[in-house]
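CORE FACILITY INTAKE
Project code: CF-77B
Contact: R.S. (postdoc)
Sample description: multi-component assembly, two entities in total
Requested service: structural model of the whole complex
Turnaround: standard
Below are the sequence entries exactly as provided by the requester. Do not edit them.
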Amino acid sequence: MRGAEIFVATQRPNQLYLLAGAQHEDPSCVISRGTCAAILFHHRGGEVAETVVFPGIWISNACRDLLHDCEVVENGLSDPTAEEQLAHRLASMAPRRVLFDQLSDSLGQSIAKVAPSIELVVDDFVTTLLRRCKDEADLVGLKRAAQVADLGMQTAFANVRPGVSCADAIAVGTAAMLAAGAESVAMAPASGIGTGYLDSGEDPRRRIEEGDMVFIDMGIWVHGYLGDMTRAAIVGTGSAEQQDLLATVQEAYQRSSSLMVPGARGEEIYQTVVDLYAPKGWAPYFVHHLSHGLGLGGDVPRVAADHAEILHVGDALSCEPGCYIPGLGGARVENMIYVGDSGPVELTKTPIDPELAS
Amino acid sequence: MRGAEIFVATQRPNQLYLLAGAQHEDPSCVISRGTCAAILFHHRGGEVAETVVFPGIWISNACRDLLHDCEVVENGLSDPTAEEQLAHRLASMAPRRVLFDQLSDSLGQSIAKVAPSIELVVDDFVTTLLRRCKDEADLVGLKRAAQVADLGMQTAFANVRPGVSCADAIAVGTAAMLAAGAESVAMAPASGIGTGYLDSGEDPRRRIEEGDMVFIDMGIWVHGYLGDMTRAAIVGTGSAEQQDLLATVQEAYQRSSSLMVPGARGEEIYQTVVDLYAPKGWAPYFVHHLSHGLGLGGDVPRVAADHAEILHVGDALSCEPGCYIPGLGGARVENMIYVGDSGPVELTKTPIDPELAS
């Protein structure tokens, strides 16, 4: 650890990752939001010898009673802030160097005040190295999250028909995911109908009409892991141009996801999508990233036009080509992918053409 | 406007507020997230003579087709960023001074590069002055949001009984709110059972048992406005101490909300709650604010221990005293309040004791 025997995790995804297993079977329900100021991991001889949680007042009780094999520092109304308590603890431990995943100005100042000689080093190797390579426990979490997302998307599209709105379909899809065990919604859902605007869409409350193109993107947290997917469809037969757009985006997904093998270059995967759109004049309408990382939050790798990246075994990432053509419609297909030894594994199971209401 | 004839709104709540009415009946469905870089309002003779929207690529199409009585600057893949386009527009207009609600480093640098002589002033009077005093349209939005929140909370508590979890109850409550027209969930719901931890709660998936104290806090966006409320209850009869805790928190709500009249001092309202808890030794367990502002987001006024504030006619704010006692339980009651000429008006209509499953 770059010569440091103490690592301080201030970011919730890293805290969840490092607490998992020993201290609690599902730390996401204890460290419930970004309200845990810091968790200190003290290493001796390559092992974590001591874990100290500085929970902040909002989750102090929960951490004290539910986390095991670690010290939870009390935090009540009359106590110093969790950051100040961390600073004093570090001062008493008197290490030469402490490693942080992130270090806010206020925390840095608190420490400098009481322990100015400690060298503070920032290196988020937990996100970029440890959490990037998914282990068995991660895969269990990712698969469960993908399963809940599948259920939500199938439920949403089973309600897509003329006369209802995307908002209606999203409502029942979200309900299905929450009922299936998701703890909270990860983001405002995106949907598009009519001319299929990216992200915003037309008013999601507009009623779907025969011949509309529809896409729905929903994300959800399940035991701390992100479940995230998108499907697109035409309500009714649609025009030849709409059919071409949908088929092309689906083909873009197939081509780009099939390239997600160990050692693949992100720019080349991205370019595959652009190359498919370009002959039709659609390259200007693929304006977003192809992939974001998957896991406990803020994950790598990212695959985008402006981002160079090599894929590794153990990566988990979305694959979500889209195309949004003014006056014609918009489509996006998004699956969750795990990069295994022998290539991409689709964690998302819903067919690429979802079943619509009959 | 502090000597400026141009005001630039970079914050979504302010953009929605200033666009409402003339340009779109419900701008929240067009400016769908925080993805609109800026909207420029050019004043002449006290009137807005020109409105220019710099939408960013994600919502460019939607803004172009759905916003009226304003100019929407094109934003495609090959265009400069919305911030750069704004900077060039300001350079061509050559004003002496421009007012911003917020000014990011990158936007400030973009403008300084092409128009170094323009004085850039930051003053978020839209949030602190204009949006603070609710008008008729705001009240319509707030009441609709409160109504949807009421429906969700009643639905959630109608499912609270031994054997189900808070997560189950929240799932059906959220579904009801989305089905009733909420566009998205505003925050991860908070709930507590058992020893009633603040915010985190025990695992929200733990099944409720006879004698548990339960509270549920859910927030939702409805046509851009926040709907937000909390209810607490005992499942079954509970102990005398639990009954006292619940009754005391409800009394704290009644006392503090009754003081929300024009001219009231926030510290005194907050202190009323503390004074009620203190004789029982519970003052250390009310660790959060009493009120946040309500409206399109990021609203004032705030009422908290560390915050001095005078209430005005037209204010809209939550009133949410809580108390979370280790080993006993937790309770929180939250209603949406409008400060009218003759005192507080409860926008939330659900009875303080919600109906539980029978």
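Facility notes:
- The mean pLDDT of chain B is 93.
- The longest strand of chain B covers residues 213-222.
Invoice: internal transfer
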